[in-house]
Specification:
This protein is mainly alpha-helical. The protein contains three helices and two strands. Strand 1 and strand 2 form a beta hairpin. It binds zinc ion.
Length: 125
């Protein structure tokens, strides 16, 4: 049967099938987000917060957001990619430094060992 579109069609939550209003962002019964891309994490504040915590892993929230504009998406994407690149660069740099420190440490231990003519210098610290 076809009702004329005067009356508002009831909307049901996809998870728990409770009746919800069109204006609801979340189901009042089970808390499911009713509008993908509309939760707090998809707003400017949410994305900036996520970007600070997750870095480039916040990118999906930028792309799936239906709240922020296309220019904001490009800006956030660029910023997060720069942050991601910087993180990778820092990690590589730290790894290189650690490797150099380890080599120095091993070198010192070898010197110590050679000096003492003993293998017991390992594990003394
Ligand atoms: Zn629900």
């Amino acid at each position: 049967m076809n009702e004329p579109g005067i009356m508002e069609q009831p909307i049901f939550c996809k998870r728990c099938h409770a009746e919800v209003r069109d204006t609801d962002n979340y189901c009042h019964a089970c808390g499911k987000s009713l509008k993908p891309g509309h939760g707090f994490l998809f707003t400017h504040a949410g994305i900036i917060l996520m970007g600070l915590v997750l870095g480039p892993f916040a990118l999906p929230f930028v792309w799936f957001s239906k709240v922020i504009g296309p220019i904001a998406k490009i800006i956030y994407t660029l910023v997060l990619l720069v942050v991601g690149f910087y993180l990778v660069y820092s990690l590589v740099h730290i790894f290189t430094l650690m490797q150099q420190s380890m080599q120095l440490l091993i070198g010192n231990l070898n010197d110590l060992e050679n000096g003492l003519h003993s293998t017991q210098s390992f594990g003394v610290f």
